[in-house]
Design brief:
By secondary structure, the chain is of the alpha+beta class. It contains 3 helices and 11 strands. The mean pLDDT is 82.
Length: 210
């Protein structure tokens, strides 16, 4: 069944606003942001819209009461995509891909996200990897894994914070190297006791077609 056929024009507008917020901010819009986008007079109207989209399977309520966006994509190409979670704000000490951090589930071409592996999307922050084409605000496609090799661009958990860097492994240390035009960024030198969360596949840009 095509869910989009059962959606009203106002619901389709809301979905567009949600997609735009995810593309530009990496998260769902707040009630007031949706209110402004749809020219509602009160946040209550936004709340009712979220509830309507939940009833139609577009949104899913998480355990903490917030919503997760389930992007149905274009049904004509959906069979050629893999559903990939977009990670939102990460709480210290919690796995980056835990349920409470997932803002949306987005279809990504299976030419990028191979069906035999797990992936997540992460919004890059800062310019420490801009020489590689990963710029501030870009969505980054990451293959979820706990190991990596020399030269991989990794998502690493360091002191409960997440960073994207180039991995360099020596006999005595692990170095997370920035690849940036900004000389203020310095390598992070660690012992071997650190956690790889995944390996970067590609940067998808700030909007882009997923």
């Amino acid at each position: 069944m095509n869910n989009q056929a059962t959606l009203s024009s106002k619901e389709l507008e809301a979905i567009k606003a949600i997609r735009n917020a995810i593309a530009s901010k990496g998260r769902l819009p707040s009630l007031r942001e949706l209110m402004a986008s749809l020219q509602y007079r009160s946040p209550r109207s936004s709340s009712l819209m979220f509830n309507r989209l939940e009833s139609k399977g577009i949104l899913k309520k998480k355990k903490n009461g917030s919503f997760q966006f389930i992007d149905l994509g274009d049904n004509s190409i959906h069979a050629q995509t893999v559903n990939v979670p977009l990670v939102g704000t990460v709480s210290c000490g919690k796995p980056i891909f835990s349920e409470e951090n997932i803002e949306a589930v987005i279809p990504v071409s299976n030419k990028l996200a191979k069906p035999n592996a797990k992936y997540f999307l992460l919004r890059a922050s800062g310019d420490s990897m801009n020489k590689t084409g990963i710029n501030n605000g870009d969505l980054v496609l990451v293959r979820q894994q706990q190991t990596a090799k020399n030269g991989d661009w990794v998502v690493a958990l360091v002191d409960d914070g997440v960073t994207i860097k180039e991995l360099s492994i020596s006999e005595n240390a692990v170095i997370l190297k920035p690849c940036s035009t900004n000389k203020q960024h310095k390598p992070i030198i660690l012992d071997r006791d650190f956690k790889v969360q995944g390996v970067v596949i590609t940067a998808l840009g700030q909007v882009g077609v997923l």
